[in-house]
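Design job #97: recover the sequence.
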């Protein structure tokens, strides 16, 4: 199964809500982030993607590494996504939908049952954000 390498952000606000985004032409919500350009580190990729997609200006010191996670790709059947994940804290009013994004949402654990989410989010990243509600 071919791998797709990405960087992803687990962004939690002061109310414990997690930011998820949906790209144009897709149905599943996922953590913001994206694929690296040649020569970029995982953190550099995430900083660029968050700027392009959400208008965020972050520095590497704003990112806390969470590890590498593997799941089925949400939008490319037959592929796996290999994600370098980072945590970041921002104020919700600082993000706006840009680039290829169609929508963003700040979700709570109650939203998980009703929102179409990417496997990576369901299996790995949301349980990091909400360890008490995982399981």
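Job complete. Output follows.
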């Amino acid at each position: 199964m071919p791998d797709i390498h990405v960087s992803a952000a687990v962004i939690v606000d002061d109310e414990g809500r997690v930011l998820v985004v949906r790209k144009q032409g897709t149905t599943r919500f996922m953590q913001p982030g994206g694929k690296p350009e040649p020569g970029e580190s995982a953190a550099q990729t995430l900083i660029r993607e968050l700027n392009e997609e959400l208008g965020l200006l972050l520095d590497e010191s704003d990112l806390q590494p969470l590890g590498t996670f593997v799941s089925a790709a949400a939008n490319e059947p037959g592929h796996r996504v290999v994600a370098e994940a980072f945590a970041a804290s921002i104020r919700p009013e600082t993000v706006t939908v840009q680039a290829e994004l169609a929508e963003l949402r700040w979700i709570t654990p109650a939203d998980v049952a009703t929102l179409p989410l990417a496997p990576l989010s369901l299996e790995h990243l949301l349980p990091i954000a909400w360890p008490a509600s995982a399981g």
